[in-house]
Design goal:
Structural class: mainly beta
Number of strands: 27
Helix content: 10-25%
Strand content: 35-45%
Largest sheet: 10 strands, mixed
Length: 380
């Protein structure tokens, strides 16, 4: 396999931008804990505590990993008396428990132990009793584990104790996109399992070398868009709200929907934008609305505001994420479509509705892809 085109491509991309890409999928924060970086390198290590497993992601070099799991309080009580072990695929790795504590850290907190007793891969009976009596619903416990004979370090393995009475927290948050001072003249789209795409003005002089490079690589589909500009140079799996493989249901509604890939991107200021759905408001995420308030508003039209200006929405992709369900995708041009209304009226609490790939009509009558997502949340 000739690796030269790939190497050259990487060089070109680096030369055209020194900006850092910002993903829409911001980490969830629990009591000061920053969750795992979505784009971190996948590891081959799994930490087991009793019957519960924590898949680990590489967090830093050399060989530093993090992971998390959510369990009920009764399940955690059972875990306390069970062995803790680390495995690399099917190979068991001998470990030492460097620390176990409740977070956030407080010096006066008794539930903070460095190098606790750890025999036969289990906590001592005294530590088990202390954590059993001291931990409540909503608490988070952190384990720090080092392997004894190699460089593997589990910097943080978080065990979050579920609280059924806690306010609904979406799995995926959306924030306003960070916009570089100058837009880029091309965009590469790379999603696992799909043919990569280059969106570019093939006649533009400033990106002619980029176009020539990709044109020689038959793997890429090239889409010519006159005057193309974007603030998102690269769209990879990590830049999407949800991974394509996780969306198990995808439905196209409406007639003659516009193909967003063939459109130029809106490059105006978006940090003052917000989406109205009846009396509900997303900036770009909404507060938690009650189920009754949600149902009262979903028959109303969507209204996109850029400050005082309102822009017409021509189409959108709606992704519905119900708790403990795979996300579902709906391409449509009107939320009031009967088939979509039927889906929306069946939603239950602890659900998020995301609007992405919004196609808007500018003042010039041209349709644009809006590079900003919005979300409405139904509380529990």
């Amino acid at each position: 396999m000739n690796k030269m085109p790939i190497i050259i491509t990487a060089i070109i991309l680096l030369c055209y931008s020194c900006h850092t890409e910002v993903t829409n999928e911001s980490p969830i924060v629990h009591k000061g804990i920053v969750n795992i970086n979505e784009k971190a390198e996948s590891g081959v290590y799994t930490l087991y505590w009793g019957n519960h497993s924590i898949s680990l992601m590489k967090y830093a070099n050399p060989e530093v990993y993090k992971g998390s799991v959510k369990v009920s309080l009764s399940a955690f009580w059972d875990m306390l008396g069970m062995p803790i072990r680390l495995e690399q695929k099917d190979k068991s790795i001998e470990i030492e428990l460097v620390g176990i504590n409740r977070v956030p850290y407080q010096r006066s907190d008794s539930l903070r132990l460095s190098y606790p007793e750890f025999e036969n891969q289990q906590l001592s009976s005294g530590d088990i009793t202390m954590f059993r009596e001291g931990i409540e619903q909503g608490d988070v416990i952190e384990l720090r584990v080092f392997s004894k004979f190699d460089e593997v370090k589990i910097q943080s393995a978080f065990i979050e104790i579920e609280d059924p009475n806690a306010p609904y927290v979406p799995e995926v948050f959306v924030y306003y996109q960070r916009q570089p001072e100058e837009p880029f003249s091309f965009q590469v789209i790379q999603e696992p399992g799909r043919r990569p795409v280059l969106r570019i003005d093939t006649s533009a002089e400033d990106t002619y070398k980029v176009y020539e490079l990709y044109r020689e690589n038959l793997l890429y589909k090239i889409i010519h868009i006159p005057g193309f500009k974007t603030h998102r140079r690269l769209l990879a799996g990590g830049e999407q709200l949800f991974k394509a493989k996780d969306i198990r249901k995808s439905v196209v509604l409406g007639k003659e929907l516009i193909d967003w890939m063939a459109l130029p991107e809106y490059t105006g200021e978006i940090r003052q934008s917000f989406l109205e759905w009846g009396e509900m408001l997303a900036q770009p995420s909404s507060k938690n609305y009650s189920l009754s308030a949600f149902r009262q508003n979903i028959t109303q039209p969507l209204r996109l505001k850029m400050g005082e200006e309102e822009l017409s929405i021509r189409a959108f992709r709606m992704i519905i994420q119900e708790k403990d369900h795979y996300p579902e995708s709906y391409m449509a041009d009107d939320p009031a479509l009967p088939s979509l209304q039927k889906v929306l009226h069946l939603l239950e609490p602890a659900t998020s509705i995301y609007f992405t790939q919004l196609i808007i009509e500018g003042k010039d009558g041209q349709c644009y892809l809006l590079p900003q997502d919005y979300a409405f949340h139904i509380g529990n």
